[in-house]
Write a structure and sequence with these properties.
The chain is an alpha+beta fold. Strand 2 and strand 3 form a beta hairpin. It is globular, with a radius of gyration of 16 Å. The protein is built from five helices and 14 strands. The relative contact order is 0.22. The protein has one domain: Alpha-ketoglutarate-dependent dioxygenase AlkB-like (Jelly Rolls), CATH 2.60.120. The structure holds 2-oxoglutaric acid (AKG) and fe (ii) ion. The site of 2-oxoglutaric acid has 10 residues, from strand 7, strand 13 and strand 14. One of its GO terms (molecular function) is dioxygenase activity.
Length: 209
């Protein structure tokens, strides 16, 4: 119902824009110094941006070794390094807005953008922390903008059982912060429910992957 209302709102506004962050971001403390911030419906006009990204991003199907085999990574990917032009101007605006909103707490800007395209419920990402680089040893932030059909971002303390799950889609923002990448894990689990495609854009600071 909410999604439907958001869609109508988007049509009425007929424009792509970011809502306010100040006063609209809700922080949830996890444990061990980990937290997530949520700002639902941050991006208006998400349908249009979603369609543009499906079309314009050079999506890549990756393969990776697993045991004795090489298997397809179950989602499409495209990584934008620091300094790369992002595939939609609203994403540049989102990155810069996040950088200034979190400047005091993060102490550095968000510089990279990882894009993931989950075509349906078979596409997923297994439990992990973004721990390559500094996320392994230092507090940091990973900000995720979600477009399209809602999928759950599941979270659990490392090695524990699922402790939180946030349905994310249609312009929602979630920021994982504090020790989240090293003391907690996150995943987009496969689902047998009929779900449409979802795109997520993860903004990260330098040397966090
Ligand atoms: O798609 C998402 O929201 C999460 C993706 C993710 O965790 C990753 O690519 O590291
Ligand atoms: Fe991740």
């Amino acid at each position: 119902m909410l999604d439907f209302q958001a869609s109508l709102l988007d049509l009425n506004l007929d424009r792509v824009a970011l809502g306010a962050l100040r006063g609209r971001v809700e922080r949830r403390e996890l444990s061990d110094g980990a937290w997530v911030d949520l700002r639902r419906g941050w991006l208006c006009g998400a349908d249009e941006v979603f369609a543009d990204l499906v079309h314009d991003v050079p999506w890549q199907a990756e393969r990776r070794p697993m045991y004795d085999d090489v298997v397809a990574v179950p989602r499409l990917l495209c990584h934008y390094a620091a300094g790369d032009l992002l595939p939609h101007p609203i994403l540049e605006h989102a990155r810069d807005t996040l950088s200034s909103y979190y400047a005091d707490e993060l102490g550095e800007p968000f510089v990279t953008a990882g894009c993931c395209y989950y075509r349906d419920g078979h596409d997923s990402v297994a439990w992990h922390g973004d721990r390559i680089g500094r996320g392994r040893s230092a507090d940091t932030m990973v900000a995720i903008l979600s477009l399209g059909s809602p999928r759950r971002l599941s979270l659990r303390p490392v090695g524990g059982t699922t402790a939180a799950a946030y349905p994310l889609g249609h312009g929602d923002l979630i920021v994982m912060g504090g020790s989240c990448q090293r003391t907690w894990e996150h995943a987009i689990l496969k689902t047998a429910r009929p779900v449409g495609p979802r795109i997520s854009i993860q903004f990260r600071p330098r040397n966090v992957f």
